[in-house]
Design a protein that fits this description.
2 copies of one chain form a homodimer. By secondary structure, the first copy, chain A, is of the alpha+beta class. Chain A is built from 8 helices and 3 strands; from the N terminus they run αααβααββααα. The structure holds a DNA duplex.
Chain lengths: ~140, ~140
DNA sequence: GCCGATGCTTGAATTCGTCAAGAGTGGTAT
DNA sequence: ATACCACTCTTGACGAATTCAAGCATCGGC
């Protein structure tokens, strides 16, 4: 049962969807992961970014450095605490992020092979899955 | 719709299941990826291994080197073409691979939270998915 | 027997990830 | 205020994973 779902995911392009997408858009998988964690016009402290990326603070620094080099994000500060540095998407960053999400949400061909009824059935069943906080894009 | 499924995989432990499993078993994620591509007692040329791993030939060389160091695989040759080197699981390798598969197939807690009816519904819907050749373990 | 194509390996460079140490700031207690 | 500890981010060292360019041996025609 679970194996069906897992195997499907593993075999379909979904497993390395992010790798493929990042190649298409000329960025690295790391860039993509980070971009997805940032909401447009919503600066975020490095710390919470590292946390939701499940990685070291120094790794977050490195990632943001790479993103900043390519004008995808900008660093900022908060007046209340001069220790924290924030990260926010630039217009280019927001655009790239939107493209990534658009591209990631394209269903794999395996799913498109299903007919309308089967799709609806699957949809209904999936709706029962507990909502683990959606990672991006509502 | 597809987004539900994708988001589920993304958010649930499944995304880094391989990382966790490899830590448990004392191998690296790279080891795991490679092990899953090898059938026991079925030597495989490096080339096709690299291909199904979607990686460079030199990367495959590097990976197999690491596996060989740990006695998980052995290199061999084919009599018909002395250029190709084959890779085959050792007994230890086969055992490790089985453990990995066993562990990977355990469903994530999110799924276990569903009640029996919902599970059955999901199962029925998934059964309609086209069979993309199962990557491992029947 | 030469010559281009093929299969693998080697070496350098890049990305990603962790850990240890440091610089700067904030908060608190004396 | 000053001393001290905690917190945030950065830097540096290192290992894992990945790619590219170059090299070596071998194969397959011609």
């Amino acid at each position: 049962m679970w194996r069906d779902l897992f195997s499907f995911f593993w075999s379909s392009g979904s497993r390395n969807a992010m790798v493929l997408v990042s190649q298409e858009l000329g960025v690295t998988p790391g860039h993509v992961k980070a971009l997805l964690e940032l909401e447009p016009d919503q600066p975020r402290p490095m710390g919470t970014l590292a946390e939701s990326l499940h990685c070291d603070a120094s790794n977050a620094t490195w990632l943001v450095d790479r993103l900043e080099e390519r004008d995808l994000v900008e660093r900022g500060t908060v007046p209340t605490d001069r220790r924290v540095k924030t990260v926010v998407l630039t217009p280019l960053g927001a655009k790239t992020r939107a493209a990534v999400i658009e591209r990631l949400h394209e269903p794999p061909p395996e799913l498109l092979a299903l007919d309308r009824d089967d799709l609806e059935e699957l949809r209904a069943a999936l709706a029962k899955l507990p909502k683990s906080e959606p990672p991006f894009g509502a």
